[in-house]
Automatic annotation (TrEMBL):
<dbReference type="Pfam" id="PF00106">
    <property type="entry name" value="adh_short"/>
</dbReference>
<dbReference type="InterPro" id="IPR002347">
    <property type="entry name" value="SDR_fam"/>
</dbReference>
<dbReference type="GO" id="GO:0016491">
    <property type="term" value="F:oxidoreductase activity"/>
</dbReference>
<protein>
    <submittedName>
        <fullName>SDR family NAD(P)-dependent oxidoreductase</fullName>
    </submittedName>
</protein>
<dbReference type="InterPro" id="IPR020904">
    <property type="entry name" value="Sc_DH/Rdtase_CS"/>
</dbReference>
<dbReference type="InterPro" id="IPR057326">
    <property type="entry name" value="KR_dom"/>
</dbReference>
<comment type="similarity">
    <text>Belongs to the short-chain dehydrogenases/reductases (SDR) family.</text>
</comment>
<feature type="domain" description="Ketoreductase">
    <location>
        <begin position="14"/>
        <end position="193"/>
    </location>
</feature>
<dbReference type="InterPro" id="IPR036291">
    <property type="entry name" value="NAD(P)-bd_dom_sf"/>
</dbReference>
<keyword id="KW-0560">Oxidoreductase</keyword>
Length: 268
């Protein structure tokens, strides 16, 4: 269910759409938009009542939609909620992880990761991006991952989905370079969110290791978007890992990832 819609006459403030906004990086991104004077349309597959209250306390008008953005219906319902209004910024942050070996995963869970991280994200960008291009103005921030830079043994589908997001963002940025629409991809590493719990990766080395604060990650991505940068890796250690991944053989990277993501801390 959505809140009552805001008419264009009621809001002269810039408008941002943020997905995955109930917690973690998405919540922090929405908070930054609200602090900067944006009104918000926020979506997630979990309740948004507390987030809405927090964003409104910062002066934003907020519309919420709890929906499954892995579905065409979910994405279309979010787009319909915008109702033809000009979207100044889109933070496409919704995503799901999935741990364990590929052949041990439920295929329904696999499809949900693909349809959330790839299909739903692509569909939303196709709808909102066209409107931005027509207006000649807009900023798009995609939440990718440094996971997309390496083969994800024991998170194969998730890493592959983020490789898609990372690559897609650079291509779209190039296509839109003369249109007034900017595309930025935020590539965080392990972040202290509900991700590892929802992905079933609490018993892995990476799940139990040190993680970045989602507020810090969101600020890095938000400011990169404001500057119109193409990409940004959040965190010094993650920057080092990303640089190392660029010159390391894929087979070696897969083995490194295995040690980080194998269930049971990589021990039998």
């Amino acid at each position: 269910m959505s809140d009552s819609r805001l008419t264009s006459a009621e809001t002269a403030r810039p408008l941002a759409i943020v997905t995955g906004a109930s917690s973690g990086i998405g919540y922090e991104l929405a908070r930054l938009f609200a602090q900067d004077g944006f009104d918000l349309v926020v979506a997630a597959d979990t309740p948004l009542a507390e987030a809405k209250q927090a964003f409104e306390s910062l002066g934003a008008r907020v519309e919420t939609l709890q929906t499954d953005l892995s579905t065409e219906e979910g994405v279309q319902s979010l787009y319909d909620l915008v109702s033809g209004r000009s979207v100044d910024a889109l933070a496409a942050n919704a995503g799901h992880g999935l741990g364990e070996g590929f052949l041990d995963q439920d295929f329904g869970d696999i499809l949900h990761v693909i349809n959330t991280n790839i299909t739903g994200t692509t569909r939303l960008l196709h709808l909102v991006g066209r409107d931005m291009r027509t207006r000649g103005k807009g900023q798009i921030l995609l939440t990718g991952s440094i996971a997309g830079l390496m083969p994800g043994a024991f998170a194969a589908v998730y890493n592959a989905s983020k490789a898609y997001v990372d690559s897609f963002s650079f291509a779209l940025r190039n296509e839109l370079k003369d249109t007034g629409v900017s595309v930025t991809v935020l590539m965080p590493g392990p972040t202290d969110t509900e991700f590892f719990d929802r992905a079933g990766m609490e018993d892995t080395v990476v799940g139990q290791g040190k993680k970045m604060d989602p507020a810090d990650v969101a600020k890095i991505g938000y400011h990169a978007m404001q500057r119109g940068e193409g990409d940004v890796v959040a965190g010094v250690m993650n920057k080092l890992q990303a640089a190392t991944a660029a010159v390391t053989p894929q087979t070696a990277l897969a083995e490194v990832h295995r040690r980080q993501a194998e269930p049971g801390g990589g021990k039998h």
